[in-house]
Design brief:
This protein has 105 residues and is of the alpha+beta class. It has 2 domains: 41 residues, no CATH class; 62 residues, Zinc/RING finger domain, C3HC4 (zinc finger) (Herpes Virus-1), CATH 3.30.40. It has 2 helices and 6 strands.
Length: 105
């Protein structure tokens, strides 16, 4: 069975887009896998920060970006993009918003 039905590539001066059309069977598998991962992320803690990993971080106050991405929720409740927060606490071990201490141990 062919899982990939069609691939479309669109390129412009500023970006490249790839569209992959897959079978219904593969699409259902991808969606169920993503749901399982999201459920696991809600119960996993980040080992390098006193933060809980979450599946999304909208409106990150560090980069001011609104795009979705993996996030980290600090004990104070503030959520940031994981990558942004990792860079922040490497310089300052406090929450970027409320300045609550962040345990980096």
């Amino acid at each position: 069975m062919d899982y990939v039905q069609e691939i479309i590539l669109r390129a412009s001066e500023h970006e490249t887009q790839v569209f992959i059309f897959v079978s219904d069977e593969l699409q259902e598998h991808i969606i169920s896998t993503a749901r399982r991962i999201r459920t696991r992320l809600n119960s996993v803690s980040c080992p390098c920060l006193n933060a809980k990993l979450v599946d999304t971080a909208e409106d990150c106050a560090i980069c001011l970006g609104g795009e979705e991405g993996s996030g980290a929720k600090l004990p104070c409740g503030h959520i940031f993009h994981y990558d942004c927060l990792s860079k922040w606490v490497a310089k300052q071990a406090t929450c970027p918003l409320c300045r609550a201490p962040v345990d980096t141990g």
